[in-house]
Amino acid sequence: MLVQVEFAFETEPNAYRFLNTVKHFDAKELVVKRGRSAQHVLIKYRYADGSFDDTAAKLDDIAREMGGEECH
Q: What superkingdom heads the lineage (predicted)?
């Protein structure tokens, strides 16, 4: 299953720092890029089949530490 999630940040530097941090995550078919604005980061990855995948929880935690949150 392909997962897509977007995070919004208060400032562009925080968004860019988050983008550079998570682009090195160990996730299958990971794509990290700017979202709908310079303060958004869009992430796509393939959910790990057959096992628990905690990627979304890790992304939420890192975003929260950097002043961001998941947006819809």
A: Bacteria
